[in-house]
Protein 1
Amino acid sequence: MDQQDILRNIIAMVEAEKRPRASLEAGETGPATEQARLTAPARALDRCGDLLRRRRAKAEFGGNPDEARPRPTGEVEGYQF
């Protein structure tokens, strides 16, 4: 997966995340339902963002960005920015 593929995935996940949020704001569904629907896309988005940052860092410092691999969700979710 190259940088453009990762960016396309991020854009698609952000769009997918907007639908449940809009549904909740419109009162079409309840918070528990939408929270469940948002959890998986939010985690996937975190992983893609992490991978993109790591690829860019490798390229910036002379490394091979293709060596960067997605980290486990639990590892990425624990980061503090």
Note: The chain has a mean pLDDT of 84.
Protein 2
Amino acid sequence: MSRKGNNTAGILAGLLAGAAAGVILGMLYAPEEGKETRKKIKNKANDLKDQAKNKYGEVSEKVKDQYSNISSTFKETANSVAHTVKDGYDKYKDQIVAKTTDVVKDVEAELNDLKS
């Protein structure tokens, strides 16, 4: 998952850098005053910064949600396995105790027979 996240982040960064370069080049070659061009570049840079922050927020929320889902699923699975193991242990423990009790009774009966 981290490899996919790195690829997505790289692609997003590349797209934003390409868009920014395109906007800046377009403005620099437009026939306007330098002051007006600098103002447009500043506004566009602020817009791109806001877009990047929004995308970061969206991606961050998705990652948090996925982590939460995976964490919950793991906890549920671990609890289920623990209960299954405990139930199996209790079941077989009771069977072993019952068999051991039967064996002890049989041995005691044999010893009583030998004494008589």
Note: The two ends are 76 Å apart (CA to CA).
Protein 3
Amino acid sequence: MTVNQILSTKGKEVYSVLSSTTVYEALKVMGDKNIGAILVIDGTELKGILSERDYARKIVLKDKSSKETFVHEIMESNVITISLSDSLDSCMELMSSKRIRHLPVVDNDIVVGIISISDVVKSIIEIQKDTINHLNSYISQ
């Protein structure tokens, strides 16, 4: 299974904020959209990613104000990305080895989607269900 196949099921909607957005405003968007991370995109350029983990470690634990801190001050700017043709296995490997939960999908330097660990797990479960059903029907014949 490829990233493109996952996005065709999940959808390619991408939520983002500007790097000049306050952390508080970014958190409001994340809460409204029920997402655990948001991309930071200025124009069409991917500048970073902000996660709940970034907020907890770089705002809460350091006793900073989310209303006075800008996203660019705490975002992860070294963003690992994937392409539409990448496999589910390569996504799992990246997420596991880099200890990340979200992978932006880039095509021709434009963000076209995002894959979360939840999307990967759901896809693996679906593949396993299909395999089990196929084996059950094979055995029943």
Note: Strands lie at 16-17, 37-42, 45-51, 102-107, 110-116.
Protein 4
Amino acid sequence: MTSLKQVIEVTEAAAFHINEMMEHNEEQGSFLRVAVNGGGCSGLSYGMHFDKEKKEDDFEDVQHGLTILVSREDAPILMGTKIDYKQSLMGGGFTIDNPNAIASCGCGTSFKAAKREGTPEVCD
């Protein structure tokens, strides 16, 4: 495993909510995997899920007590990405700020990157 300290930053607020979700879903001991998937309105979409297994080509980092995994394939597209949790009068949610996204969709989870083409889908 290689450190991904320079790939993704997870804020303390985001880590707090992710750790709460892990506990609620009985996923203690899991890792947070951040990924780039094909699809979405702009061609690519973000994926975040709990994973029990590290892969040999994963970059790994621990931030605020949370172990984060990113595949070597996704790391260039996610380099410099910041994951935060924002609270507003309308509720709260995760925000992803990716400096490599050259376009994004109004849904907030779909984007286009210069380094990888995706396959756009119709948004619901």
Note: The chain has one domain: 8-102.
